[in-house]
Amino acid sequence: MRNLKFLVATTAVSISLLTLSGQQASAGQLHNGWNYGIDAVGDGSGGATFDIKGMAIKDSGDKIYVALTGGMPLAGTTHDSVHIGWSDLFFNFSGQNFQTASQSGQLVGVRFANYDNSLTTGVYTGVRAKSTTTEHKGYSSLKGYYDKGFGKANTQGTDLATTQDVYNYYYNSAIASNPTTSNTSILNAIGSGTKVGNISMLGSQDLTTAGLDFSHFSALGDYTVGFSLDKALLGSGNYVSNIFFECGNDGVALKGNFQSQSVPESSGPIGLLLAGLTFVMSQQRQLRRKQHV
């Protein structure tokens, strides 16, 4: 019986540690079930309107919730008679840098702000990205943006905290080691892909009910944009998600992990621990029966 009690206690501790380590494996900062990437303050070129404060993603099982906050409203703004707003959101599950994943059509893109009707809102797979920043009077390169002095700590959130982190993620190693204004184009929009599903826009009350709380990190902007989509449209595994403004004046990224829906949790490490506990308990019962014979 003493051995059984010890195993029960050990199993409980192990389950707790496995659960915690699974959460920590998803980068970002966890709060109320949301994974947050908090962007640098004041790195939005052009002022507060162009300053992204943070990004958050929640995996609720069959749905994925996304929220973005900062000075930019969903409808965008106008500068020198040119419209500027949110670009497309990307998910990269490939484990490769963004440029390589884009060239091989391995990105997932989400269009949630439909300004020009070139693409309908929704989720797109097999995506190759393109740059539209110069069309919106923005930066032609990420190096040009940083050369203007916007390379602050947490330049694209807490997961891409330094300019070198950013170069390493968005470009291949040759470019990342020698970035210039001619080789660091900002790929901010869906260039091509296949639409596989729709999204549902969410209001502030919907997001609050879902547990969103940017103010916990002192990162609540004037506007918060949110939407949800079916998890099945994205898939599972480790990802990097990112977004820029149409002008490239700011961007934010977030690393995380979506758990698979098709594999029951009992088949993982926790399941093995529980199976072991069940086996030992059955052995204890058999031993007690023999002792009473």
Fold and architecture overview:
27% of the residues lie in helices and 29% in strands. It is globular, with a radius of gyration of 23 Å. A hairpin with a 6-residue loop joins strand 13 and strand 14 (251-258). It has 7 helices and 14 strands. It folds into 2 domains: 1-28 and 265-293, no CATH class; 32-262, no CATH class. It has a 6-stranded antiparallel beta sheet. The chain has a 6-stranded antiparallel beta sheet with strand order 10-9-8-7-13-14. It has a two-stranded antiparallel sheet with strand order 5-6. The protein has helices spanning 2-25, 98-103, 142-150, 163-170, 173-176, 204-209, 269-291; strands spanning 29-31, 34-38, 52-59, 63-70, 77-79, 82-84, 89-92, 107-111, 122-130, 189-197, 199-202, 223-230, 237-244, 251-258. The protein starts with a helix and ends with a helix. With 293 residues, the protein is an alpha+beta fold.
Helical fraction equals 25-40%
| Total count of strands | 14
> Which stretches of 5+ consecutive residues score pLDDT under 50?
4-25, 263-267
**Between the first and last Cα atoms, what is the distance in angstroms?**
18 Å
Radius of gyration: 23 Å
Quick take:
This protein has helices spanning 2-25, 98-103, 142-150, 163-170, 173-176, 204-209, 269-291; strands spanning 29-31, 34-38, 52-59, 63-70, 77-79, 82-84, 89-92, 107-111, 122-130, 189-197, 199-202, 223-230, 237-244, 251-258.
Main attributes of the structure:
single chain, 293 residues, alpha+beta, 2 domains, 6-stranded antiparallel beta sheet, 7 helices
